[in-house]
Amino acid sequence: MAQKYERNQEASVYIGNLDDRVTDALIWELMVQAGPVVSVHLPKDRVTQSTQGYGFCEFQSADDAMYAVKIMNMVKMFGKPMRVNMSGGSDRRQQQQQQDVGAKLFIGNLDPVVDEKLLYDTFGAFGTMTQGGPKIARDSTSGNPRGFAFVAYTSFEAADWAIQAMNGQYLANKPINVSYAFKKDAKGERHGSAAERLLAAQAIKNDTGMASHNHGGMQFQQQQQVPGASYQNVHGASSGPQAW
Fold first, then answer.
1. What is the pLDDT of residues 33-47, one digit of tens each?
2. C-alpha radius of gyration, the chain, whole number
3. Residue 46 burial (C-beta neighbours within 10 Å; 0-12, 13-18, 19+)
């Protein structure tokens, strides 16, 4: 009986939001730029043999896997930004950092040229994001951006810094509006309330294994320079529904 191969979870990454044209060979060719690859697996439908939009890549070391997350997340293949995170069971600390505390931001008045990668590079400077990174709202028919997006952080400190530094600043060619998003189930109530912050603080206190939500030792000022932004303090109007 053949022995089942066990993937090294500590050195593996999950890859999501893949176009159905992406193959194992393409993922291998891309990921080897981050480090030596041991294996690539894209689950396929048993009947059609088409890929299911996600997969896994195992590296020789955990350091290579973490480096792949840093440089490959949000890279586009066939026009779709990949979601690259540490594999499900590989890094308990990272999983805890991905917990949703309610630090959700609305980003409005976006220029059409702004994509998920630019938002990730810009807003990722303020802290760790949850839920696979930025989400740009798109027209369900044409796929064109609707001029607004959402970002969620693992801490309210990161969200506060992002608002302070980026609200009213130019990203690409337009001044953006950054604020806490409205809650879906509460009319007129925004995320970032005192109650949410208290619950988040209590969750951190109860889980002694959770990584502290610092920003890698970085401090940000109002005019902090981040990629893709030119800083003129002009406030733009928000656009689109702000609930998330």
1. 999 999 999 988 778
2. 19
3. exposed
